[in-house]
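Researcher: Here's my situation. A collaborator sent me these components and asked whether they could plausibly form a single complex. I don't have experimental data yet, so a predicted model of the whole assembly would be a useful starting point for our discussion.
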Amino acid sequence: MIEVKQISKRFPLKDAKLVNKVANDDPRVKGRFFNVLNNVSFHCQQGEVLGLLGANGAGKTSILRTLSTALTPNSGHVLYEGLDAHENKLAIRKNIGFLSGTTGLYERLTGRENLAYFAKLYGVKDNDFKRVLDELTEQLGMASFLDRRFSDFSTGMKQKIAIARAVIHEPKVIIFDEPTTGLDIAASEVVLSFMTRLKEQGTPIIFSTHHLAEVERLCDRVCIIHQGEAKFEGSIDELNHLTGHDILQKSILSVMSNNVMTNPIAQDVPA
Amino acid sequence: MIKTIYLKELTELVRDKKTLIFMIMLPLFIFPALFGSITFFAAKTVQKEQARVLTYWVANATEKNAIVDLLAQESGFKAYVDESSDSESAVDHKTDDWEKMVRSGKVDFVLEIPKTFDDELATNVQSQWQLHFNNAELTTSVWHRVNGLVNRLNKQLTHDKLILLDVSDAEIAGLVHPIQLVKVDIAKAKESLGTKLGGMISYILLPLCLMGAIYPAVDIGAGEKERGTLESLLIAPVSSMQLVLGKLLTIVTTSFLSAMMAVISLALWGFIFAQALAVKAISDIIGTLGLMDLGLALLMLVPVILFFSALVLSISIYARSFKEAQNYMAPLSFLVFAPLIIAMLPGINLDWQWAMVPITNVALAIKEILKGDFDWLIIGFIWCSQFIISLFMILFAAFWFKREAVLFR
């Protein structure tokens, strides 16, 4: 189980022009700091898919980077099976499969070399690497380009290798940031089918997306992030029931515009 | 883990065309070809100027003036013949005309001899001759060549006069040069070669080490950031120290290889252009200095290379992009050259005071080692102090790799 307990994260605003530009509009700007996350809490159970939803700049990527331990929160905790992620970074990282929209791979290496490199970094044994690579090659359809240089790949090929990189060490938790952005229908379907397979295997997945069809297809529950705060956490049915809409898009917009505070964990955890 | 990162970084660098150009093609082929061509053309130009026939005009010379005969006999000089004018005296008396002749290129020089020269010579009064030539082009050899002739004439005239005074040849030498200073150099061949080569090695190798470190550092620091690969690395179960050491070793390797490539290039091209000569020169250097001392001199470079590598890696990881990193790196070369220039200044010798100045101390130490007369204590102190500074720089780089404000700028 993954528990996110009241995490907050702020960045210094060094650019005076930026301060002046956003200070009047954005409540997250406090003095010379930008509070990108404010007491965000949610959880994800074993075998569950949790969708992080929200507008651009809402703080979804910062949350996912914090979950991956790339960012350390200023306050709050991220717990994996009760273990604090930021106090046990190296151990936790071995169990996380993270993919962000900006994650790149090495262009001068082949797809296979890229995967072998990360497998070694994650301490995967040679035999296990061969087995997992064979499985992933088949599931993601990578056989035709696996031994070509990464720089020669199309966007879809790159994303397939990036996904394979994220799961080459057979992680216990999957964190994907907009995994289908920029992909065509066929490539998107491969990614979504792969995520479905992971879900069926009982791997918890937290992912962000702007494609609501993906949310309806994959997510057991959703968490709506608005201006650095978690505004709702629950199932799609609960969301629609709460807002009175039967269309997911309208429900999300309703939560974002009404600033409805409906996060049970945030309310339960003492400050 | 460090080995995995190191091998991957090296593989990537080797596959990069820019690396091949900057690290192999440039020092091994392009720079030597460039410098070789420049040296060749410069030598040709000087040679051509030395061999060029200089057209001259001697003003006010009487028939018995020896300079007229001397110029006529000397190859490389040709008297000017004014075909347009039948009156030589028209040219002879006007300084303006001589200048015009030189400026127009009719003659390369006019040697103006005072009309009173014969009387001056007879009465032992020093005569002043004027050489009119255009010295705007610094390559001109007029002064050098005419001065040589006049010196020969001076010697001859002095000799003739002294003979007339019944002075013997042996006495002439004592009379003209009562004292002759004879050079007796007590410096051993090793000391002499070590001083010259020591300064040169530091001056050439240290900047090359820095240059060899900059490109890979930019690629594996800011380049990773720009390409989005850094994030994948940061979420891997690898400590920042392992990450830094893996990358640092790559930079150290390329830095060292880059300096060695320059040395190999010099030896290679020397061998190609002057085969036997180059082999003899190299064997002379090794024979005189000794492999042990050369090895020790290279060992002095190790902590400096470590320091440079950690420094450029820290700068590179701070930069947002390749371009920004290159901008930050530009002033670094000044920081290296300034202490090296100090080390090359005459009178600057290695003592405890200079041993405290980073980079300068290493350059001076290399010089002392190659001279063969060095204090182990001071050399050991410099190596250790530079190594400790490098360790601090490496720790700083590891700390830098942990900072979100640096990594996610």
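Model: Some features of this prediction you could bring to your collaborator: The longest strand of chain A covers residues 33-44. Chain A has eleven helices and eleven strands.
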